[in-house]
Specification:
Blueprint lengths: L1 H17 L33 E4 L4 E3 L7 E7 L6 H16 L6 E7 L7 H11 L4 E4 L2 H10 L4 E5 L6 E5 L3 E4 L5 E5 L5 H13 L20
Parallel strand pairs: 3-4, 4-5
Antiparallel strand pairs: 1-2, 1-5, 3-8, 6-7, 8-9
Length: 224
């Protein structure tokens, strides 16, 4: 367990150090007590997991485009200094721990900072953690609508007189089932091993999809 936590910490640190300088703009809230990631927002009531966004490959996908697969989704942004690298490192660890069964889970990172997170920026960012992670973005209005559907909160925080800003956002991961329906939300503080166990239980209880159901979304790279 200690080794696993150390591995996650080192991966998250490596992600932060590997990012371009432009992607490391100030991202810490003025008042840490206001950080939405620490707000206890771990109960998903009324979640409507619908989205229509663009991937890092340029194609448009919806929550209905992953027939037969579970979806593991988190919200964040590439300039995030701590919560997002940690979450994506955990997401990568979960896929690794699931082994072959992990192919039945599509990992997704939805940016809440469409102004800076272009498809190219998203692609470079998520690839650091795992090449299977899809980065999704869209217009500010589309992203806001998707966040509202998932009951995910975020806000732009900018210092007076400065053009630099950060995004204060809630954290955690959402699990959608093969029918793209909401299954569970895993809070930010939940250990990756526990999330893995819960996802595995869902996989074990769900029949594997047929080859027809496993078709990848149009324009997406082949699944590994």
């Amino acid at each position: 367990m200690k080794y696993a936590r150390l591995k996650l910490a080192l991966l998250a640190l490596g992600a932060a150090l590997a990012l371009p300088a432009a992607a490391q703009a100030p991202a810490k809230p003025l008042n840490p007590a206001r950080h939405l990631a620490a707000s206890g927002d771990d109960i998903a009531v009324g979640v409507q997991p619908r989205y229509l966004l663009q991937t890092q490959y340029g194609n448009v996908v919806t929550n209905q485009d992953f027939g037969g697969q579970f979806q593991l989704i988190t919200f964040g942004y590439t300039s995030c200094p701590d919560v997002c690298p940690t979450t994506l490192a955990e997401m990568a660890a979960i896929l690794e721990q699931l082994g072959e069964a992990g192919k039945r889970v599509q990992p997704i990172f939805i940016s809440v900072d469409p102004q800076r997170d272009t498809p190219k920026v998203l692609g470079n960012y998520v690839a650091f953690f795992n090449p299977r992670i899809l980065g999704l973005t869209g217009s500010p209005a589309l992203v806001r609508g998707v966040a509202d559907n998932f009951k995910a909160r975020y806000e732009k925080v900018q210092e007076p007189g400065s053009d630099q800003y950060w995004m204060d956002h809630s954290a955690g991961m959402y699990l959608l089932g093969p029918d793209s329906g909401f299954v569970a939300k895993f809070p930010y503080a939940m250990p990756a091993a526990e999330i893995t166990a819960r996802i595995k239980a869902q996989l074990d209880a769900t029949p594997e999809p047929t080859p027809r159901e496993q078709q990848a979304p149009a324009g997406a790279p082949p699944r590994r």
